[in-house]
Design brief:
The structure is a single chain. The protein is an alpha/beta fold and about 240 residues long. The chain has one domain: NAD(P)-binding Rossmann-like Domain (Rossmann fold). The chain has 5 helices and 9 strands; from the N terminus they run E-H-E-H-E-H-E-H-E-H-E-E-E-E. The protein has a 7-stranded parallel β-sheet with strand order 3-2-1-4-5-6-9, with helices on both faces. Helix 2 links the parallel strand 2 and strand 3. Helix 3 packs parallel to helix 4 and helix 4 packs parallel to helix 5. The radius of gyration is 17 Å and the shape is globular. The structure holds NADP nicotinamide-adenine-dinucleotide phosphate (NAP). NADP nicotinamide-adenine-dinucleotide phosphate binds next to helix 1.
């Protein structure tokens, strides 16, 4: 018996990077999975890996900058499995590095669409069914980025997501649904770049800490994955 046997998890941005690690780890723990990315082709490797592990898996593509596609993704999730037990809002974009104070507003718009509005919509629409079942874990992936003016659309979008979690959290007390934030640390992924100090697999086991929080836990906790690295882990 695995710890998450029979649970359904939705992981956005599962086609590569952090999301791929999280989806694989949840699969090893016995989860059935809905993996999301932009395209079916991009999701093929994670789908194949999860099938190899013996998991039930659905791969659902959606462009998160497009609100109608976000809603279609949620509709498809509800239709196929009812509410998931675990929602991992991991997908995000980082708009290009810009000289300070020259950033076009469209960079902010796109960042907010993908990094804030999409995860908020997913939370808002799935919270009701999850609360009705009186069990759920929602993890929104944030960032420790600070003081980099050239990447402000990214950092302010993460700040907005943090605030959403903070202000929703008191209403979840005693509901069985625990909403948390994960800061994965600076990792070598397509987003983090080759110069990042940590390999992508160091996001584990910390990324599962918010999933395994006891039912009586308060929402709003920030888990820093790098604080939970295995002693023998290498970069
Ligand atoms: N890497 C770091 O150092 C670092 C540090 C702090 C926080 N984070 C956070 O960790 C999370 C994962 O980052 P990562 O490094 O794994 O990123 P990544 O390697 O760039 O992967 C991004 C994932 O999000 C999906 N995605 C991107 N834009 C999308 C869009 N417009 N619509 C739908 N899906 C989209 C991608 O799907 P496709 O494959 O289909 O494009 C991919 O699965 C993000 O929330 C990021 O902000 C990362």
């Amino acid at each position: 018996m695995k710890r998450l046997d029979g649970r359904w998890a939705l992981v956005t941005g599962a086609s590569r990077g952090v999301g791929y690690q999280i989806a694989s780890a949840l699969g090893l723990e016995g989860c059935r999975l809905i993996v999301h990315g932009r395209t079916t082709e991009g999701l093929a490797p994670v789908r194949a890996k999860l099938l190899d592990l013996g998991c039930e898996v659905h791969a659902l593509p959606a462009e998160l900058a497009d609100t109608s596609q976000v809603d279609r993704l949620i509709d498809a999730v509800l239709e196929r499995i009812g509410a998931p037990d675990i929602v991992y809002n991991n997908a995000a974009i980082m708009t290009p590095w810009r000289e300070a104070h020259t950033t076009p507003l469209d960079d902010y718009r796109l960042s907010f669409q993908v990094n804030v509005l999409a995860p908020i919509r997913i939370c808002d629409r799935l919270l009701g069914p999850m609360r009705a079942r009186r069990w759920g874990r929602i993890v929104n992936v944030t960032s420790g980025i600070e003081h980099i003016r050239e990447l402000l659309p990214y950092s302010v979008s993460k700040a907005a997501l943090d605030r959403y979690v903070r202000d929703v959290s008191p209403s979840l007390e005693g509901s069985g649904v625990v909403m948390s934030l994960l800061d994965p640390g600076w990792l070598r992924t397509d987003m983090g770049g080759e110069g990042a100090p940590n390999s992508v697999n160091t996001v584990l086991p910390g990324a599962l800490v918010p999933v395994f929080l006891p039912d009586e836990s308060s929402s709003g906790r920030l888990v820093r994955a790098q604080d939970h690295r295995d002693a023998g882990a290498t970069d």
